[in-house]
Fold each of these.
Amino acid sequence: MFTRLSLRFAFLILLSQALSGCDLLFIPKIFPPEMNLVQPLDTVRLRSGLDSLRLEFRIRDEDGDLGRDSGDQTLDLWLLEVRYGFPPFDSTYREFSVPNLTPRGANKVVDAQLELLLDPFETRADLDVDSLQLYAVLRDRSGNFSPVLALPTVYLWKATN
């Protein structure tokens, strides 16, 4: 009986040694993309229906799986537009496709600039002045999301002719 117990104990030691170098126990690192706003850094004032909004982001991703090939129209960048007042927390969102930013070669770290030119915003009905807040989020091809990025407040006013 003692030998059987010793045999089991020896088997467990050998099994633990074999599994210690096993790739089945490998847990991959997750690299969510990072996104920072480069422009504008402060409050924006636009004429309703006339002025476009230009946004410039710095994007970084450690494993380089950002963007899609030209034939793939998957949308990976979202801008949420939130307006306060009536109706309460009126919000809409815009979706964008991101071009493939994966660098060629062995080093796959992405460090890139991304620019968006948004169509002019309109003030809500019966308002001469309006404001909105934009939030941005980016997804890589692995399905990892960047932290939500709050953009500066945008003020709109109706332009007089």
Amino acid sequence: MIPRMKIISKLTVWLGILLAIAGTVVGLWGGWIAYRQFLALDALRSAPTDKPAWQLFAAGLSLLLGGFLIGLGIGKTPKRVVTTTTTETPTSQA
């Protein structure tokens, strides 16, 4: 059986990867909108005024959150020092 924290860690990594992929796709979409606007202005034509601000904001936010979750999921945990105690009573041998 896989320990519960390993499952949460793997789930966090996969969620972070999905968010990073979604952020990349949305960023490309927003970039394409901005590029189309540039091409229309360069050719001295008019184009529908789509503003990619929300797409680029959502892309940046999801990339940031995805990267955080990936780092959180694969981050190393600190090593714990295990201390042991004995219950034996010392005996004196004379």
